[in-house]
Structure formats: structure tokens, C-alpha cells
TrEMBL record:
Record gene name: Stat4
Domain SH2 residue range list: 564-666
Protein's recorded name: Signal transducer and activator of transcription
MF-aspect GO terms: DNA binding; DNA-binding transcription factor activity, RNA polymerase II-specific
GO biological process: cell surface receptor signaling pathway via JAK-STAT; defense response to virus; negative regulation of developmental process; regulation of apoptotic process; type I interferon-mediated signaling pathway; type II interferon-mediated signaling pathway
GO cellular component assignments: cytoplasm; nucleoplasm
Predominant location: cytoplasm
Subcellular location as annotated: Cytoplasm; Nucleus
Length: 743
């Protein structure tokens, strides 16, 4: 089943998450129509290879054209229109930057895998629960409702100001008419009656002025309360969700809703400002003793300007945190002299600001690093698919400055990976007589000078964003706080769901918890130190917990990804636990686990039964990336042979734990069908005997010593057949020269 087919079967709450990251940059129609083709391409590699990205973009357009021809024959007008629009987008927007579309599609596919993994997990972790709190959802709805009510109130006040203006114009006309009469006419009874009417009209004007000012004051107060409480909390929640998403958590949404609220509030404040300007205009034409306008208007205008300043300052946000395109799943880790991208948005979307705001990017204030590349750009609505007022820096490079002694700064692994920096942005908004200076910063980033530092740098990013919602605590690692074990385990599961498409279940997390703490503990209460996570070596090992886990992630990603996604790799299980699981199973039952003593290794253990009925277990030497580069792991499981003393070589692996036939589990991942045993005379190409790599082990039943696993030996089935015809089992054992394996 294709990944897209699995996505379509998700519950509605997960489908809503999928809907959030498909927009005009990569329309969902294309994802749906070209599902299998899209999933069969290596978009992640293309994201780092411009030539490959260009080829994939051209092929994508060809696929769209083929779909366009098909729907044209079916006369599907709506789909024809959408496909033509998509084709125009692909040709126009990405032709000059094909790697951009590769990054977008790669990210979408990765998010799908993360959501599928989250959907398969029976229980949400504490962090994810907090992000999906029903109280938060209720507050979001309340904010949107109140913003809409404020907008309506401001528009109604516009009508009151217009009525006041019409009433004053009538008063002006009637008053000037009386003033133009001769003195004798002014003493007539009719004129006196008119003067009384004018006095009543003036009283009405005074009442309406006070009423309008009161309504304006109420609108300002409602905006102030909303900004001070719920809107501020909404923005802080969005920033926290962004932090969590950056370290592999659920995709954060809600920025478009916030933009709608910020924009409506800004429009309402500018509307109130115009109303106050109109009152000032009316004041110049008519004033009187006790006139409320000169008393109240200056205070109200000052308050409006103050709210506009604060609204604009809060609306300037980093929409997408700094990230190297070469490592899209490791944001906020930046390598010197390597380009990174970062995107900013102004949540107040006003057409008057298009191309009028120039943003400048800088880094830190300690002068250790500088930014090379285009670091000043104008915000606009044209580059964004949804017409948002944003700017994306795509060609920034951090460069380390030389010290006064002429050498570069300290680049030791701990110094670099625990030293936090900040990318800052500043701009100025000039609108309707207001000049507002805006500043914002990225989340803390870690600078590295070598890719080998990336794992520890990423550990720092994880720990920071897990432990604090402070966006700018650059001295955090001077005294890093402990983390709650339950939250840390949840984040570790996210590393697997976001990076390799399948998270960890409770049993796997239990094993990691025991490895971190050395004991069985309560998740909710245990506090784990930063040193325990990333700096102290595991007991009896030469590496830390994080280095061990990162090596496993790399192994899965590069060599055993399909098997991991299918859920056939138990992975995180101790030697003691695997024996408990296997001891009562049918002989030949095996499981796959990651090595605890070797970095980036995977092994398999199977259960066997001796002639006396005793149960025994056998494990092979862990396969690392070097050996898995030579032979796919699924093929190793298929072709693995054991030579028992005086016996014919046979494959001892029958059932994947608990009772899944091996070929049923792994058959679809075999690179080819195993060759039939043939004699040399059957030949291969050009008279050669066909050869395949076959992993072989030898087990001696009479040995009492722990045995070490076998090496991988190249041997064809034909050679096996010939050897059995001409040599004794003892001679074969000598010929294969493999190590003993038994544990």
C-alpha cells in the first residue's frame, strides 16, 4: 500500500494535520494524482543536488502534462483548470530554484511519515497532549470571535462618526444662516425659536460626541484586553509549538489564524485612528465649553498608537527557523560557510506594506561570526503561496572571524556544540505617519565547523527546546537544567518518527529508559541530567547514550529503512529480555535488535533446542553499515546459513518473533530470488559460475566457551554443491574459515 493510501485512511484529527502543510507551494491534487510516482523518487537527495532536482522538476512537469491530457479527454473542467495552474506554478516559481520544490516535497513526505507513525502509537506523550489541550483550542475560538466582534464594533462606530459629521454640517448650515441675517431679523420670534432649536441640536451634538468617544474608548479597551491576555498567550503557544516541531514533534499550525487576528486588529486600530482624526477635523470647525473632544481625543490617540506599536512588534516573527537545506531534519544547526535558509513573516498583512519593509539579518553581537551573502531583503506578498507578507533568506552563510592572534576561535567539540548563538532581524515600518522599529530573533542556533560535530550539536538543540520556552537564553548551557524522563523519551520517539518514519512503542522506550538510568524508574518523576544524556559515557562503553542512539538512526536511515517502517525490527531490547521472549518459542524463531556494544550495529538472535531438550540461543556479530553496504539486510536474513558439526549448511531463521514466517515478513524486501543450486557446468555468463554473497556461521555443539559471530563470506550455491560432492563436512568447515558464533 502506498504511503498516500495509508494517509487517506487516517482519522480526521490526523487528516487535519496533513491538510496544514499542503498549499499552493505543493498542491494536494498533485500529491493525490501522482502518489506512486512521487513516492518512488529520491526527493531528499535532490534537495542537495541541483542537477538531480532539475531533472526531477522536469519529470514532474511531464507527469502533470500526462495527467492534463487524461483529464482533458474526460472533460473534467475543474481539474483541467487546477492542473494548468499547477503547471504554470512549477515552471514559473521553481525553474530558477529546482532544489526548493525538492525540499518542499521531501518535507511533505517526511511529515506524512511522522503523522502515520503518530497515528500508530496507542498513547500520546505528555508534550503532545499539552500542545493539543482543549483549553487552548477553546481560547483560539474565543480570540477569533472577539476579534470579529471588535471589527464589527469599529465599523459600527464609523457609522456613528458619519452621523455626527452630518449632524454637525446641518448645525453649521443653520447657524451660519442665522448669522447672515440682519440685526432686526434676529430679534423676531421665529429666529428665537430657531435659536432654541440650534441649542437643542448643540446638546445633541455634545451627547453624540461623548457617545462616539465612549464607543471608541470601549473598542480600544477591548483590543487592549485581547492583546494583553488571549492574543499574547496564543502567540506564545504558537512559538512553543514551533519549538517542539523543530525537534521532531507534531507539525505546528495556526499562524494563518494568528495573521488573520493581527491583521483585523490592525485594521480596527487604524480605523479608530481615522475616526479620531475625523473628530479632530470636526473640532476645528466647531467647539464649545465642555467639549469632550479636546479632553479625551489626545489620550485615546496616544493609546491607539501605543497598541499599534505593540501589535506590530509582536507580529514580526520567524516563520521558519534557520536550517541548512543539506540537513532539513536538523534545524538550528549551522555549519560555517554553508548556506542556510530562514523565513520571516509580518502577521499584519496590509497591501500598503508590500515591498516597503526591508529586513536586515545579523548574527550575535560578539563579533565572533558574521553573515555572508544577501542579508538585506524586502518583504513582499508575491513569493508566498498564500500571499503572506514575508521574506525568505536563502543564501546566508555564517563565517567565523579570526581572533586578534590570527587564529580561529576554539572549535573543540564541547565548546562548539554547547555554545548558543542567535540570528537577529531588524526592520522599520512607516505607515500613516507612524514609524515603528521592529526586531526579532531566531531560536538559539549552534555553529559547527565540521559535520562530525552535528550529532552533539543536534543534542544541544533538542535539550534546549525541550527544557525551556525562553527564546533567547544564550547562556543556557552554563547550567543546563535536568529534563523530565517522560518528556525526553517522547522527544526521542519523535526523532525516529520524523527521521526514519516510525516512532518507538512503550517497550522500546522502556529499554531506553533503563539504559539512560541504569534501573527501572517512574517516567513521571525521574529527572535526567544533560551530562547523563550527552556527555557521560555509558557504563563500560567508550561512547555516550546520544552517540549510540544517533548511530542507530543513521543505520536505519541508510540501510534498513523499509524493514524499520514495516515494524519488523524490535531494535531496542536487552540481551536478557530477548531470551525471555524467545525461550518458549518454536525453534528457529528470531528477533532483530540493535547492538548495545557496537555503534550503529544490528544483530539477530534465534532460539534452538538441543537433543536433550535444553533451549539455547545464538546471536551473530552485529552488522554495521560497512557490511550492509555490501549486502542488503533482508537478503542476509534470507540467505544466512549455519554449519553445524557434521551437518549440511542450513538457514536456522524460520519465524520472526512472535510467529511470522520469515519470507512473509521480508519477502517483498528481497533484492532478488535466491539462485537455484547449480553445478559449474551449468555456467553463468562467459563460462563463469554465478556467485552470490552468503553469510555463513559455524556452531560447534561441544564447545563450552562463548562464541563470536561469523564474518560475511562470498560463496555461491554452486560452490556449496561441488564442495558437498568432493569434501567432507570437516574439510568444508576448514575451507570457509569462519569464526564460531554462539551466545
Amino acid at each position: 500500500m502506498s504511503q498516500w493510501s495509508q494517509v487517506q485512511q487516517l482519522e480526521i484529527k490526523f487528516l487535519e494535520q496533513v491538510d496544514q502543510f499542503y498549499d499552493d507551494n505543493f498542491p494536494m491534487e498533485i500529491r493525490h494524482l501522482l502518489a506512486q510516482w512521487i513516492e518512488s523518487q529520491d526527493w531528499e537527495a535532490a534537495a542537495n543536488n541541483e542537477a538531480m532536482a532539475m531533472i526531477l522538476l522536469q519529470n514532474l512537469i511531464i507527469q502533470v502534462d500526462e495527467q492534463l491530457d487524461r483529464v482533458s479527454q474526460e472533460k473534467n473542467l475543474l481539474l483541467i483548470h487546477n492542473l494548468k495552474r499547477v503547471r504554470k506554478l512549477l515552471q514559473g516559481k521553481y525553474h530558477g530554484n529546482p532544489m526548493h520544490i525538492a525540499v518542499i516535497i521531501s518535507n511533505c513526505l517526511r511529515e506524512e511519515r511522522r503523522i502515520l507513525a503518530a497515528a500508530s502509537m496507542p498513547v500520546q506523550g505528555p508534550l503532545e497532549k499539552s500542545l493539543q489541550n482543549s483549553v487552548v483550542s477553546e481560547r483560539q475560538r474565543n480570540v477569533e470571535h472577539k476579534v470579529s466582534a471588535i471589527k464589527n464594533s469599529a465599523q459600527m462606530t464609523d457609522q456613528d462618526v458619519k452621523y455626527l459629521e452630518d449632524l454637525q454640517e446641518e448645525f453649521d448650515f443653520r447657524y451660519k444662516t442665522i448669522q447672515s441675517l440682519e440685526q432686526n431679523d434676529k430679534n423676531s420670534a421665529l429666529i428665537k425659536q430657531e435659536m432654541l432649536a440650534l441649542q437643542a441640536m448643540l446638546n445633541t451634538l455634545d451627547y453624540k460626541r461623548k457617545e462616539v468617544l465612549s464607543k471608541i474608548g470601549r473598542v480600544i479597551h477591548e483590543i487592549d484586553m485581547l492583546m494583553s491576555n488571549m492574543l499574547t498567550e496564543e502567540l506564545l503557544d504558537w512559538k512553543r509549538r514551533q519549538q517542539i516541531a523543530c525537534i521532531g514533534g507534531p507539525l505546528h499550525g495556526g499562524l494563518d489564524q494568528l495573521q488573520n487576528c493581527f491583521t483585523l486588529l490592525a485594521e480596527s486600530l487604524f480605523q479608530v485612528r481615522r475616526q479620531l482624526e475625523k473628530l479632530d477635523e470636526l473640532l476645528t470647525r466647531l467647539t464649545y465649553d465642555g467639549d469632550p473632544i479636546p479632553v479625551q481625543r489626545p489620550q485615546l490617540l496616544e493609546k491607539v498608537n501605543f497598541l499599534l506599536y505593540n501589535l506590530f512588534r509582536n507580529s514580526f516573527v520567524v516563520e521558519r527557523q534557520p536550517c541548512m537545506p543539506t540537513h532539513p531534519q536538523r534545524p538550528m544547526v549551522l555549519k560555517t560557510l554553508i548556506q542556510f535558509t530562514v523565513k520571516l513573516r509580518l502577521l499584519i498583512k496590509l497591501p500598503e506594506l508590500n515591498y516597503q519593509i526591508r529586513v536586515k539579518a545579523t548574527i550575535d553581537n560578539n563579533r565572533r561570526f558574521v553573515l555572508c551573502g544577501t542579508h538585506v531583503k524586502a518583504m513582499n506578498m508575491d513569493e508566498s503561496a498564500n500571499g503572506n507578507l514575508s521574506v525568505e533568506f536563502r543564501h546566508l552563510q555564517p563565517k567565523e572571524m579570526k581572533t586578534s592572534a590570527g587564529s580561529k576561535g576554539n572549535e573543540g567539540p564541547h565548546m562548539v556544540t554547547e555554545e548558543l548563538h542567535s540570528i537577529s532581524f531588524e526592520t522599520q515600518v512607516c505607515l500613516y505617519g507612524l514609524t515603528i522599529n521592529l526586531e526579532t530573533s531566531s531560536l538559539p542556533v549552534v555553529m559547527i565547523s565540521n559535520v562530525s560535530q552535528l550529532p552533539n550539536a543536534w543534542a544541544s538543540i533538542i535539550w534546549y527546546n525541550l527544557s525551556t520556552n525562553d527564546p533567547q537564553n544564550l547562556s543556557f548551557f552554563n547550567n543546563p537544567p535536568a529534563a523530565t524522563l517522560s518528556q525526553l523519551l517522547e522527544v526521542l520517539s519523535w526523532q525516529f518518527s520524523s527521521y526514519v518514519g516510525r516512532g518507538l512503542n512503550s517497550e522500546q522506550l522502556n529499554m531506553l529508559a533503563e539504559k539512560l538510568t541504569g534501573q527501572q524508574v517512574s517516567y513521571n518523576d525521574y529527572q535526567l541530567s544533560w551530562a547523563k544524556f550527552c556527555k557521560e559515557h555509558l557504563p563500560g562503553k567508550s561512547f555516550t547514550f546520544w552517540v549510540w542512539l544517533e548511530a542507530i538512526l543513521d543505520l536505519i536511515k541508510k540501510h534498513i529503512l523499509p524493514l524499520w517502517i514495516d515494524g519488523y525490527i524490535m531494535g531496542f531490547v536487552s540481551k536478557e529480555k530477548e531470551r525471555i521472549l524467545l525461550k518458549d518459542k518454536t525453534p528457529g524463531t528470531f528477533l532483530l535488535r540493535f547492538s548495545e556494544s557496537n555503534l550503529g550495529g544490528i544483530t539477530f538472535t534465534w532460539v534452538d533446542q538441543l537433543e536433550n531438550g535444553d533451549v539455547t540461543f545464538h546471536s551473530v556479530e552485529p552488522y554495521n553499515k560497512g557490511r550492509l553496504s555490501a549486502l542488503p539486510f533482508a537478503d542476509i536474513l534470507r540467505d544466512y546459513k549455519v554449519i553445524m558439526a557434521d551437518n549440511v549448511p542450513e538457514n536456522p531463521l524460520k519465524y520472526l518473533y512472535p510467529d511470522i514466517p520469515k519470507d512473509k515478513a521480508f519477502g517483498k524486501h528481497y533484492s532478488c530470488q535466491p539462485n537455484e543450486v547449480s553445478k559449474p557446468s551449468d555456467g553463468g555468463g562467459k563460462g563463469y559460475v554465478p556467485s552470490v554473497f552468503i553469510p555463513v556461521s559455524k556452531i560447534l555443539n561441544d564447545s563450552t566457551e562463548p562464541h563470536s559471530p561469523s564474518d560475511l563470506l562470498p560463496m555461491s550455491p554452486s560452490v556449496y554443491a561441488v564442495l558437498r560432492e568432493h569434501l567432507s563436512p570437516t574439510a568444508i568447515e576448514t575451507a570457509v574459515s569462519c569464526k564460531l558464533s554462539h551466545s
